Amino acid sequence: MKKLMIILVLIILAVVALIYVQQPQQTQREVKQQQAEKREEVEQIQPRPTTFVQIYYLDDQGQLIPLKRTVPQLQSTAEQVKNALEELTKAPVEKNISSAIPEGTKVLNVEVKDNIAYTDFNQELEKMGGSARVQAALDQIIYTATGIEGVDKVRLLVEGKAIDSFTGEGIMVDQPLGRKE
Known about the structure:
Layout: H1 2-45, E1 50-58, E2 64-72, H2 77-88, E3 107-113, E4 116-121, H3 131-146, E5 153-158, E6 161-162, E7 165-166, E8 171-172
Parallel strand pairs: 4-5
Antiparallel strand pairs: 1-2, 3-4, 5-6, 7-8
Helix pairs in contact: 2-3
């Protein structure tokens, strides 16, 4: 009977010891999770650094006009160009200001090499007609991208492929294009 009592006490002690040993690990996990949640809360509360870029839209006479937009301040030139072009694809909110960029146009990727921004858009970019509108859209892209320091020219890509002729209007874009100054 004494042996049974000793075995029972040892089993109880072993169970208590196991619970005690596992308790700190669960608490550590909970602490790590709480710390991660607090970091996320702090990141949401603290404003991210922003900067201004010039996005080129069209005035009521169809002339390019730069408007300032706030975008996240990023490290690489390619990220800056991509943010600026993504802002360009949004419809302007100002009166008497428009854009020739077709609705639904998305910036897929931007790479900058040797001061040339290789700008990759979805196929919506080419869904427009009229040589004046096509030229205006092209100018909007070129002027917006070359407004970023470190970019002198732009090479258009659609769905990852370099294009030689922009839309059905036959505007040649077979090489990097810069501003008409």
